[in-house]
Amino acid sequence: MIVYIDADACPVISLTEKNCRDYQIPLVAVKDYNHELHLEYGDVVTLEQGNDHADLYIANMVSHGDLIITNDMGLASLVLGKNTYCINFYGNIIDQNNIDFLLHSRHVKAKGRRNKKYGKGVPARTPENNIRFEQTLIKILEEGKNEYIR
């Protein structure tokens, strides 16, 4: 298992880095050159700025059993076809059971923005968000590690 983070504007990089280090799971954070990021554990891949460069890089690199951390449902839909784990920044699991709904929601929101209808935006991140994310992350890291031991 390798953990890939869609690292541009990701609020859970340090939590992910800590847990990957604790479980000795390889970590790759993918970002464009406009974002500054240094990790003590794991690798940082810096790409040219552009639409979907990081997404396509991650989609091309992942394989069965890897974990992708992203809030981008387009990227999530690409990697799920490779039998990966996928979670968002809030610790919600993204899988074949909910990706269609999540993509539809993304479409409806984008359509609203094009028609000048805006929601309230993203709520402020809470400590509970971090706790839920970390709980989900640990569960998947343990499951993934056990998969390779069998």
Describe the structure.
This protein is an alpha/beta fold and 150 residues long. It has a single domain (3-98, 105-149), classed as 3-Layer(aba) Sandwich (Rossmann fold). Helix content is 45%, strand content 14%. It is built from 5 helices and 5 strands. It has helices at 13-23, 53-61, 73-80, 99-114, 127-149; strands spanning 3-6, 27-32, 43-47, 67-69, 85-87. The protein has a 5-stranded parallel beta sheet, sandwiched between helices. The chain is globular. The mean pLDDT is 87.
Search tags:
five-stranded parallel beta sheet, 5 helices, alpha/beta, 150 residues
**CA-CA gap between termini:** 13 Å
Q: Write down the secondary-structure element order.
A: EHEEHEHEHH
CATH topology: Rossmann fold
CATH class: Alpha Beta
Main sheet makeup: 5 strands, parallel
Q: Which CATH architecture?
A: 3-Layer(aba) Sandwich
Strand content: 5-15%
- Give the CA-based shape: globular
Average pLDDT taken over every residue:
87
Structure at a glance:
The chain is of the alpha/beta class. The chain has 5 helices and 5 strands, in the order βαββαβαβαα.
Lay out the secondary structure.
Elements: E1 3-6, H1 13-23, E2 27-32, E3 43-47, H2 53-61, E4 67-69, H3 73-80, E5 85-87, H4 99-114, H5 127-149
Parallel strand pairs: 1-2, 1-4, 2-3, 4-5
Helix pairs in contact: 1-5, 2-3, 3-4
